[in-house]
Amino acid sequence: MTNSDDSYKRLERDGISDKGEIRIRVRRLKGGKCERLEAIDFAEGMNKEKLEKALIFAGEASGFEEGKSVRGLFGRGLKEAIIALGKGEIYSIKDNKLSIAEVWTDKKSNKPKRRLLEEPYTPTNEERKEIGITEGNGTVVKIIVTNEKIKCPPLGNFVPWVRDHYALRDINSATNRKIILEFESPEKGSLKIFETISYEAPRVKEKLVDQFIKLPGCGDNIELKIYESGEELESPYNNSFARAGLLIKTQAAILDNQLFKYQSENAGRFFFGEVIWPNLAERLRSGEALLDLNRVGIEWRQEVCDVLKREVEQILEPFIEEKRRQLVVEPVRKSSERVNKLNMAICSLLNRLAKEHFSETPIDIGPGHEKIEELTIKPPYANLEIDKERPFSVYAPITIVGIGPGPYQAKVESSNSTHIQILNPIVTLQPHRERVLLYYGNFRVVGKTDKEEATITCKFSDHIATANVRVAPPGKIGPRKTPERKGGFFREIKADRGGNPSQRVRYDEHSGIIWIYVKFPGISRYFENNLEFNDEGSRAMYAELVGEAFCRFISRDYLDTGKVLRIPGGEIEAVTIAMSMAQEQYLYHIHDAVLRQKL
Predict the structure, then answer these.
(1) What is the CA radius of gyration of the chain?
(2) What is the pLDDT of residues 336-360, one digit of tens each?
(3) What angle do CA 565, 168, 2 make, to 5 degrees?
(4) Residue of 586, 500, 530 lying closest to 333 (CA atoms)
(5) DSSP readout, 401-419?
């Protein structure tokens, strides 16, 4: 969709009229398997030379580097998306000449391949009809989804996901674009459903900010617009479809959606808007590494990005504080002594579990220690003293390395190589002296600038391992930047009596309170307004809700530290996996503690 939009923009810039139509065709089989995925536009089309350039991996073909107002900031997109899903065919007609290309992954070498039809030719009317471009120019991408991990949601989910994705908001709301979805599901009687995709911003209760600010220390001009919604929206944390948040924009592109430090707060979910940063495009053209390498948004650890973040947070703060005050709902009466006793005991348990989780230190690999089943870096978290080398180890099981003459070499990189450097980026893996099924090697890292952070990535064949490092004094390093507050992360468990709640339980990190929404549908039967228990079912529901809040808190850590990878387009699946991991590890502790407590 973004490629098609870019192509239409180039036509419009040259004064050429167009229909601005983008068609998405999906055929979903039983069980969520996607049999066919197609995207069609009727814009410029590509000749053989341009199509070949567009399929150079990590190439730049959009016109962004020449200063054109298009989204192609990354030099990757179409071909990488095809490879991630499976294999694809591209048909492009320009000046009545059809060029065809194929993109796939070679199973033996596990490397992407591309092939172009030798000579473009004039398509027949029948061929045009079959392709989907009956007249004029245009491009069609047809993808066969072979990646079994990729599932196609039903129509009821597919439409809002395409409609609400933050990167597509401008396209879906533009008056000069028409997005049409053709959705076919044979299990529903092979009925083909046509939907027009159009995004509408949340209802504005009040316009709070509309101003220009200059970033201190760098001089970039930012246009900031903040609105308050009349209803609570979804937080953008790990949610590309959330409508709360500030869209980070540069020329013709939305690169992120953020509430910054207010992402997990209920109060933050009432605010949305835009941060328009024109200079970001120029910085990207000049080579500044301001985008996340995984293509999931801005690299907020970079200095200029951090300055922007702090400036916006400062402007947001008074509105968040006021909304916090508005949302506070006190119980009708104080909870009984038995409920208070249970709440205190469970908060104590949660703080102990959290402390153990965030203070875990890596153990050395040796006989009798944990089993290594994938490429691993030890330690996974570490502090670096300025200008002092620190050794790290890479471990790989023989199932990854294989049996052969070698040598086996892994490559190590730093995401912040200016300030945190790898001294020996090529690591030779040798058989472990004590564990015959394990290979290992060492590399050294040095930090150059205080308080800088980096993700260290080790690659061996198609296997990847990561570690997080920070330049700081010696000591334990945890995955979270925010230190545990005095008294622990969890201070109280309270009932929220507000009407029409959008969720059944929420943990407020700012106050350390777990709020249980007693008027949420299905929850009210278990509790009085102040969490008094009606029966044993109430106690089990209490454990389930508290466990949900705690495990959601822990799952965020799994995502932040890379223990669960966030793959662009698979953010929701990553959140689900992280939540399941947390529940498997901690939920039974909470249930046991609640059921054992005497009331």
Answers:
(1) 27
(2) 788 888 999 999 999 989 888 775 4
(3) 90
(4) 530
(5) H-SSS--EEEEEEETTTTT
Cα 308 to Cα 403: distance, rounded to the nearest angstrom: 51
Cα–Cα–Cα angle for 167, 170, 172, rounded to 5 degrees? 95
Burial 2-14 (b: 16+ CB within 10 A, else e): bbbbbbbbbbeee
Tokens coding 459? 């690659």
Please say whether the beta carbons of 86 and 143 come within 8 A. Answer: yes
429, two tokens: 């893996």
Q: What is the Cα–Cα distance from 427 to 460, expressed in whole angstroms?
A: 10
Residues in a beta bridge with 27: 36, 184
The 10s digit of each residue's pLDDT in 2-53 is 889 989 999 999 999 888 999 999 999 888 888 889 999 999 999 999 988 8
Q: Which domains does the chain have, with CATH numbers?
A: 2-197 (3.30.565.10), 204-326 (no CATH), 333-357+490-596 (no CATH), 376-471 (2.60.40.10)
Q: Which residue has the tokens 């579990």?
A: 353
d(CA 190, CA 545): 41
More confident residue, 508 or 126: 126
Q: Is the pLDDT of residue 487 over 80?
A: no
Can the peptide bond before residue 407 be classed as cis, meaning omega within 30 degrees of 0?
yes
User: pTM of the full predicted structure?
Assistant: 0.59
Tens digits of residue pLDDT in 155-168: 888 888 899 999 99
CA nearest to 24, candidates 13, 11, 34, 9: 34
Beta bridge partners of 248: 256, 275
In sequence order, the 6+-apart residues with CB closer than 8 A to the CB of 584 are: none
- For residues 459 and 411, is the Cβ–Cβ distance under 8 A? yes
- Closest among 2, 8, 7, 10 to 20, alpha carbons compared: 8
Place of tokens 């953008």: 236
438 vs 417: CA distance, rounded Å: 29
The single-letter code of the amino acid at 463 is: H
Most confident of 303-317, 355-369, 512-526, 565-579: 303-317
